């Protein structure tokens, strides 16, 4: 275990609260944009507020949006979630497009997806140097650059003989061998 995880809050992994089974509840409750009206590092935040904030508010009616001008301060975005967690992010020197991406990320993520050291019920003195296994560990790297839908990746894999075909072949061989045994026994 590295020392960087020692200062993170720790918790046992929990399953999500079945969000989306009946209806989807957006986890982002409110988002606050704090910026300076004249400072240069707030230019991207001001552009986002002037051009894209109204569209965001219309598209996400369940999210309360606050705009708070502050004098001579760096721009900040604060997201508050249903479970009470607050994610604070500095937007100093970021462009309008970068802020749009961060807002979309905060809107779509669960509040528990922050930096948390996950504890487990087991412990080992010699952890793996290869790192933890993920579903993407042995995937083809072409998937990282593919634009979906991709015709090449949508084609079925050529596996040769299927399991059903293999079983049918074994059954036919057994049937032939049984018939040959029966004919030898009849003689």
TrEMBL record:
UniProt record, GO biological process: mitochondrial translation
GO molecular function, one term: structural constituent of ribosome
Domain spans labelled Ribosomal protein/NADH dehydrogenase: 37-110
Alphabetical list of SMART domains matching this protein: L51_S25_CI-B8
Organism: Pseudolycoriella hygida
One GO cellular component term noted in the UniProt record for this chain: mitochondrial large ribosomal subunit
Lineage: Eukaryota, Metazoa, Ecdysozoa, Arthropoda, Hexapoda
Protein name: Large ribosomal subunit protein mL43
Family recorded in the similarity comment: Belongs to the mitochondrion-specific ribosomal protein mL43 family.
Subcellular location(s) per record: Mitochondrion
Transmembrane segments: none
Coiled-coil spans in chain: none
InterPro entries named among the record's database cross-references: Ribosomal_mL43 (IPR039927), Ribosomal_mL43/mS25/NADH_DH (IPR007741), Thioredoxin-like_sf (IPR036249)
